[in-house]
Amino acid sequence: MIHTESLAMTYPGGVTALTPTSVRFERGAVTVLLGPSGAGKSTLLHCLNRLRAPTAGRVVADGVGPLEDAAAIRRHRRRTAMIFQQHQLLPRVSVLRNTLIGRLGHHGFWRSTLPLPAGERRLALDSLERVGLLDKALVRADQLSGGQQQRVGIARALTQQAELVLADEPVASLDPGASRQVLSLLRDVCTERGLTAVISLHQVEYTREFADRVIALADGGVVFDGPPSALDDDVLCRVYGPGAVADLRRDAAGAAA
Ligand SMILES: Nc1ncnc2c1ncn2[C@@H]1O[C@H](COP(=O)(O)OP(=O)(O)O)[C@@H](O)[C@H]1O
Ligand SMILES: [Mg+2]
Question: What does pTM read for this prediction?
Fold first, then answer.
């Protein structure tokens, strides 16, 4: 569906955030990018959506081609949804309007200022129903809880009719109950609609619960690529460094509580 070829990123100032990385993301799978802060997860996600241009290598999206020219980037973004940690909604605007922002790439900003066709409204309402927020459609986005706001982010991706969902620490600011609700919803809609998802997380527990595949990053390089069942202490030592496994066990016990 999308792959990278020796993708690398060095920021101005000299920080190497990603060493040459070649990975392929298959249609319909939920891949979790696991790693500590600074490992390069956000950088990889941003390169996959071309929010950042890599300093070497490239990203190739099936059916669109290498993401180097503006037309290819536009086509790619139209079918790619981003979900961020927070602050992705317009706070003073209704949940329905926020959901309809998913349609922007399909008809441009000028069109979205006009009354929207009934079909688009229907699509947005159906998406809100799927994430359990139909009754909040006319409420201002800033009236919602953090978990509900992330579910609006998922509804927006559904309204966009995205094929690829890139989520950058979507549950980092949520409590464990809301985190599990958001991640299981994300996994379920991806399964139902055959969407490809790449989700960055720093919690090992959630990764084990929700990933089909795990790519673990440390210091800008892939140190593990496999199923969550193979995520053992040895791998975690490579990801988080020696000594961190006991801390992770304690955190996991906290997350399960
Ligand atoms: N805009 C930037 N300018 C300079 N360095 C950056 C920038 N963004 C990230 N970095 C650095 O790149 C490395 C990887 O960061 P990032 O991709 O954000 O990792 P993660 O999402 O796993 O926390 C870190 O060392 C970080 O400090
Ligand atoms: Mg990050």
Answer: 0.92
